Amino acid sequence: MSVNIVAFGNERDGFSEDNQQPSLIWSYLRRSALISQIDSSLSASHVGTPVFTEYQACIFGNVRLVVHDCPVWDIFDSDWYTSRSLIGGADIIVIKYSVNDKTSFQDLKDSYVPMIKKALNHCSVPVIISAIGARKNGVPCTCPLCTSDRRSCVTTSEGVQLAKELGATYLELHTLNDFYIQKYFGGVLEYFMIQSLNQKSSEKMKKRKKTQKCHRVQPPQLEQPEKMPILKGEASHYDADLHNLLCCCQCADVAFYPEDLSTVVEAHKIILCSVSHLFMLLFEVKSPADIRDASIMRTAQSLFAVDVGAAFPPAPRGVPPCVPPVRVVVKDSVFCSCLPDILHFIYSGTPWEWVWLLVSHTADISWRGAFQWEQLEEDIKKKLKDPEKTEHVLEKVKCILKTPGKLSTVKDYRSHQIKRLYNTSLRLFFNTPVLADVIFKIQGATVPAHRAVLVARCEVMAAMFNASILQAMSLLICAEMYQVMRLQHICELYIITQLQSMPSRELASTSLSIVSLLKKAKFHNSDCLSTWLLHFIATNYLIFSQKPEFQDLSVEERNFVEMHRWPSDLYLKQLADYRNYVHSQKCHCTVM
User: Fold this and answer.
1) Phi and psi of 160, rounded to 5°?
2) CA distance linking residue 472 with residue 460, whole number of Å
3) What secondary structure letter does DSSP report for 177?
4) Which of 23, 269, 330, 505 sees the fewest Cβ atoms within 10 Å?
């Protein structure tokens, strides 16, 4: 191991009478107690001109020290190749100049420092700048702001600025005695020598480890298992389904008429009652004692009248003749003209509690709810073109959507609305005979349901209720067509989540047949689930290959599992070979 030092510059000023004064580098090598076996020779540049002195010695006992002392800067002009080679191979660079030779310092700063910076562009080499000599203007001044010797001498501030440009360490040596050479200059130089040796030792150790690692038998690397297919969640179609139900009016069981019976607007009791206590009162789902709100009862009596008289037009489309619709007369002609827009708002899927919070100005609601209400206001304004009538209709809508009773504070009101959020929606009518018009009989048990909700949310049910007996039977025979697509997708996600959360020990001991699940998924055209189960079996190959059900896989399925199995067969062979090698070497395995 060696340390290479390159020194540039002349510490003697051009007008000095003592040209026999030893140089800084030679004085350090001769006086340092750490250096031995010094040998010097005059070396030539690439073009054959002798321009630097080469010193070879030993430092720290057995470390080889090579120093190139170049007192003349002309080497950068005459032989750039040699100067660049010296800088490129240097571990430490020393730049010397005399504080009494302003001309040489100016040449160094203007001409040679840019060359050194260019040569050190991609290197991280420590640089020491040594300002040597006592300024001849009297007492040496070290103040950076001093200007007394700025004309003929190099000031301290100029030397410090030069060191900043090179990122160097700046030293001032007023004389070449033992203190300045050994303690001051030598201490800094030896510090950088130790840093250079530590860095070289670290790099050598890394290189040795890398070489040893290349020649050593390596354990097999276990590759990562293949990624499972990604199942994206499907967005809810609840809002669109209710809107389509209103537009097609299939299974409509309410018909709104004006007093002159000129037009009809169809709707569904289950939807209306899920959003309004007024409609619950109107269709006798609740009694006045349950409502206990005089304003709701007054609005219901003044706005609507239920009548099943024979003088009405025929029943709306989509309602079987044996089930007559509830016929409601709208007493307010202005309100009746806006009824289609109001129903569109009710069927938009916006929770009615949000609407009441909005119209009563008691809380902030979501952007979507605010947009639906603003849209209703715009539609009514365009239709009526009368501010007073518009306000009149909007007040009626607010009363329809009103919560029974009055609350004392806004805080209590908000709390009350949160508690009632799920009690005044479609959840209130789930699995209850209230307004139910369909009964499912399952193994002796009965499940009440609502035709309008089934038609809106399930295409199979919509086709069944709107089709003949033969078509309904055909749909019943085709079992997979009874599945609601979104519900089927949710079941797939649930099965996958449960299997993924099952530990390996439980997976190995469970009686659940994954192969049987795979075959059922294929039979019912669940392509996403069947593909995922094949990957699941392949990823847990070591567990499933030991189970009897593994033999039930088809040839195509077995080939897929073998192709995508984890760990792979190649890895298991490599692992066995490595274990044999470790056992033969009588050493411990670093993997298992």
Assistant:
1) -65, -40
2) 9
3) S
4) 505
Cα angle for residues 184, 185, 190 (degrees, 5° grid): 105
State how far the Cα of 93 lies from the Cα of 86, in Å rounded to an integer: 10
Running DSSP on this structure, what letter comes out for residue 540? T
Distance, in Å, from the CA atom of 61 to the CA atom of 535, rounded to the nearest integer, reads 66
- How far is it, in rounded angstroms, from Cα 127 to Cα 103? 22
Start-to-end Cα distance in the chain: 40
Nearest to 237 by CA among 61, 418, 485, 480: 485
User: DSSP for 284-298?
Assistant: TSS-HHHH--HHHHH
Q: How many CA atoms lie within 13 A of 434 on its CB side?
A: 17
| Strand, helix or coil for residue 322 | coil
3-state helix, strand, coil in the chain (%, to 5): 50, 15, 35
Altogether, the residues listed in the chain come to a count of: 592
The pLDDT assigned to 419 comes to: 40
Query: Using H for helix, E for strand and C for coil, what is the string for 332-401?
Result: CHHHHHCHHHHHHHHCCCCCHHHHHHHHCCCCCCCHHHHHHHHHHHHHHHHHHCCHHHHHHHHHHHHHHC
What's the gap between Cα 549 and its chain centre?
41
Beta carbons of 265 and 308 less than 8 angstroms apart: no
561, 547 Cβ separation under 8 angstroms: no
Mention every residue, 6+ apart, whose C-beta is less than 8 A from residue 353.
403, 417, 420, 421, 424
Which residues sit opposite 165 in a β-bridge? none
Cα–Cα distance between 549 and 512 in angstroms, integer?
Answer: 10
Task: Please name which of 28, 32, 150 lies closest in space to residue 94, comparing C-alpha atoms.
Answer: 28
Question: CA 592 to CA 44: how far, in whole Å?
Answer: 62
Rounded CA-CA distance 225/117 in Å is 52
Q: Which stretches of the chain drop beneath a pLDDT of 50?
A: 139, 147-150, 310-312, 315-322, 351-359, 361-368, 407-424, 467-479, 592
Q: What is the pTM of this model?
A: 0.43
Closest CA to 243 of 429, 456, 430, 401: 456
Q: How far apart are CA 283 and CA 308, in angstroms?
A: 12
Tokens in use for 563? 């192709």
Residue 233 is classified by DSSP as P
- C-alpha to C-alpha distance for 293 and 62, rounded to whole angstroms: 104
pLDDT at residue 312 in the model: 47
CA distances from 207 to 201, 204, 217 (A): 10, 5, 18
d(CA 521, CA 523): 5
Residue 492: strand, helix, or coil: helix
Q: Distance between CA 1 and CA 96 in Å, rounded?
A: 27
DSSP 247: H
CA 323/CA 303 separation, integer angstroms: 25
Please give the full DSSP string across 109-128, using - where no structure is assigned: IIIIHHHHHHHTTT----EE
Distance CA 357, CA 407 (A): 13
Rounded to whole angstroms, the Cα distance separating 44 from 408 reads: 103
Per-residue tokens: 486: 């979104």
What are 559-579's pLDDT values in tens digits? 999 999 998 988 889 988 888
Residue 362 CB: number of other CB atoms within 10 A?
A: 16
